Amino acid sequence: MICITLDMQCSLCGSDRFHLPTQPGESPHVRCANCTAVKCQTLALESTLMASRREQTPPRHRAA
Questions:
Q1: Which residue range forms the structural domain that includes residue 14?
Q2: Which comes out higher in pLDDT, residue 10 or 60?
Q3: Which of 19, 23, 31, 50 could form a disulfide with 1 if both were Cys (CB 3.0 to 4.6 A apart)?
């Protein structure tokens, strides 16, 4: 496993540090490095990050 900082937060403890599997035999889950809660499947990480970013970004207003 590798521990990295991601642009999303754990829904349980608020941490932005996560463990990602690096070896074929490891669990396929992205887990919080602080509380070990499962955030998502490794294969769904990109879509999870995009969804998290949409939640954090305020909507843009078009100029009239």
A1: 2-52
A2: 10
A3: 19
